Amino acid sequence: MPTLNDLLKYRVIVSTCASAGVPSSLGVPRGFYSHIFVDEAGQAMEPVVIIAIETLADEKTNVVLAGDIKQLGRVVHSALASSLGLRMSYLERIMNR
For the DNA2/NAM7 helicase helicase domain, which residue ranges apply (predicted)? Predict the structure, then answer.
């Protein structure tokens, strides 16, 4: 596990959405990184994407969601999760607004 000093040395870090909360838990302030790129956002569930956005972004952070909602979408096996709207990716929900 990197330390806070390790993370503050770099302008770019690479993480999964689920582990994107680690920098925040180590003390990296919101907005320290100017950009957040979410690759394959057409498959990413909203709660997982929100981990990265809510823990790392501030009002000046640029968030880029890259993906294709026409390709393989969310694979959800839980009836409960489906009924709560988790079959739709965060990117798809935003694009359907």
Answer: 9-78
Question: CA–CA separation, 23 vs 26, rounded Å?
Answer: 5
Tokens standing for residue 48: 């997982």
Predicted structure pTM score: 0.81
Which of 39, 86, 89 lies closest to 63, judged by CA? Answer: 39
Q: Which residues of 20-54 are buried (b: 16+ CB within 10 A; e: fewer)?
A: bebbbeeebebebbeebebeebbbbbbebbebbbe
Give me the tens of pLDDT residue by residue for the chain, a chain 97 residues long: 899 999 999 999 999 999 999 999 999 999 999 999 999 998 888 899 999 999 999 999 999 999 988 886 667 788 898 888 778 888 888 888 8
Whether 40 and 72 have beta carbons less than 8 Å apart is answered as no
